Amino acid sequence: MLLCRVVGNAVATHSHPSLDGFVMLLCQREDAEGKALREAPFVAIDLFGAGMHQRVFVSTDGIGARGIVDDEHSPVRNFIQGLIDD
Length: 86
What we know:
It is built from one helix and five strands, in the order ββββαβ. By secondary structure, it is mainly beta.
């Protein structure tokens, strides 16, 4: 599980059919104090309606993510597992 902040929306003109109906957000990893790590942001599907700049927990469990989208051949790997109250 990764501590992240939502930094943007991901939009695709074409995506895998398993991702239809899911919101994809751009997430940036942070340390415990909220400072962004020097890593590239990544895409995660959103299950909770996270807002821009909100802190979230992201799971990188690909098997769990594929279970959420109900497709074992889906390319999805990351999903927002919870929102963090500040």
